[in-house]
Amino acid sequence: MWSRAVLLLCVAVTAGCASAASSSSPAAPGSPPVPSPATSAAVSTPAAAPPPTLTPPATAAAACATSALLVRLGVAQGYAGGVDYVIDFTNQSGAACTMYGYPGVSLVTGPPYAQVGLAARRDTTAPVKLVTLIPGAMATAQLQIADAHNYSPQICRPVTATHLRVYPPNQTAPVYLATTSTGCAELVQTLFIAAVQASSHEHPMTNASGQGG
Fold first, then answer.
1. Which of 111, 130, 177, 204 is deepest in the core (most CB within 10 A)?
2. pTM of structure
3. How many structural domains does the chain have?
4. 41, 122, 133: which is closest to 96 by C-alpha?
5. Is the dihedral of CA 175, 180, 186, 188 positive or negative?
6. Is residue 179 domain-resident?
């Protein structure tokens, strides 16, 4: 009887071991593995696109130097709360050149020139495009000047400028265009500039008023 009990115990232990081994055995070949919660959560997301660059294509013609451009300020068009201008850039050299990106624009007093408040913020509404200017061709950039009197004198500290200082895209030599616009001496954003765009118009090379340097 004692030996029979031992025999039954061994049979029970053997069955339990076989059951445990069956539950932990690997999946049959060809069957997909079941992902664990940690594996499911580790799905990578696509990398964000790199920010756009303002470097023109390497095959483009040379950038238009400030000395190659006739820069003029178009007629002002008022709106409720400010004024819109068009800045014209005409290639007055004898060779093609390119413009790409945003002019640098600020209000100044003088001479001697001193900047009034903040330089223009880039308005990204218009796309950035490479503009090739043959001799006599023109590019334009939209400039918006918000009325400094929209703000309280304490916040703005209005100052009447004498000129707009304009740097053509990717250039370090400015042009000064006469203006009597009012800016804010405090850090209030009143200027907004768009990227240069091609124009179908041409300016005569005479009457080159407005360029200085």
1. 177
2. 0.69
3. 1
4. 133
5. negative
6. yes
